[in-house]
């Protein structure tokens, strides 16, 4: 068992990710008694300790409705700042000095990939890579080759066991719930195959645009931003076979096995869209061909899934925000009970709501009231927040795990390489993106792709 980290260093502490996710996570860990070690912020901006504390307080206040002063003060007492250039050796000397007493610091790289190399080398130059853990944020490169290159950079300095690659969807309790649902229940597993399932849809919809990150987003686009990572992780959890044992290696092996069976995506069954007005946003190229929407059809070449299409879509400025998996079952083998009004009965659906208000809705056919024996759809629904109480935030769990040296909820290099292999044929397509109006479900061609998308339950 690895020993817990005794210091946290946040590179890129002035950035968006730290204020939106990491300060609230550090606060929550402090509240739960899981964090009482130095937290050092590093950035190029000339901040002092007070600015760091003020920013942390603001971000914790925005994330939680109320802040417990005693808890925040405990966190604030641990915070300190180092301002310096990532290319300047003096930055790392000061950091090494500050970390004199720490045996297992964890370094969080919340910085653009372009400076990863400089930071990793800087840490290695003062001996910190030998005893530290490193957490890297996506995007892991831009394609298969650059992700391998990034991996070589990290491995040159850090032992692979001490590299933690974040795909925060793996840290979401609702996403982990897909795994629990499948393997903790007997009910659905016998049906989980091409004999009973017609198709599976995964939607990651956002009712907002680039939220001030357009400059970054324009170099990335929806495929690299969420399809390659978050959505494929969800597909893997839905489609994987049961791991051979209850441990991290077996889980990873099962996940990689199913990813290997996914056919590379095809440009012919992919629709890329861009919302109208995107090109006018600051930081976006006037002739940008970056997709803010992508819909595609994925197939898995395995006995379990042959013939079952997985329809995937994600986009910004859609009608609302929701992450969902909808499993659509086939019709009964014999249709004895006509649907009310004589139409074909809607299929049974299992809807996993993975975002806000997470839970499960199962749509089944029930007898309609009256003398006739006909059926009508009804929903059986559970809201996990109401049924189970507060669950932890993804970043809170991931930081906690990395400090413990636990790899289970982090992406393996091999997983990421498989994900790049799958999306490779649809990266940087030359065809022009199709425009769509904000507040719609993307270009019309995307509707045709699935032959009937299930509208997400927007909450
Ligand atoms: C991030 C993407 O990884 O995931 C964002 O960079 C996206 O563009 C976000 O909005 C979605 O995450 P969540 O947890 O809000 O569903």
TrEMBL record:
Biological process, per Gene Ontology: glucose metabolic process; pentose-phosphate shunt, oxidative branch
Residues passing through the membrane, by range: none
Methyltransferase as UniProt keyword: no
One cellular component (GO) term of this entry: cytosol
Keywords of this entry: Carbohydrate metabolism, Glucose metabolism, NADP, Oxidoreductase
A GO term for molecular function: NADP binding
Domain Glucose-6-phosphate dehydrogenase NAD-binding: 9-176
UniProt pathway: Carbohydrate degradation; pentose phosphate pathway; D-ribulose 5-phosphate from D-glucose 6-phosphate (oxidative stage): step 1/3
EC class: oxidoreductase
Enzyme nomenclature, EC number: 1.1.1.49
Residues given in the record as substrate binding sites: 168, 172, 206, 225, 316
Active site: 230 (proton acceptor)
Source domain of life: Bacteria
Chemical reaction(s) catalysed: D-glucose 6-phosphate + NADP(+) = 6-phospho-D-glucono-1,5-lactone + NADPH + H(+)
Pfam family, one: G6PD_N
Database matches in NCBIfam families: zwf
Function comment: Catalyzes the oxidation of glucose 6-phosphate to 6-phosphogluconolactone.
Protein family according to the UniProt entry: Belongs to the glucose-6-phosphate dehydrogenase family.
The protein's name: Glucose-6-phosphate 1-dehydrogenase
Gene: zwf
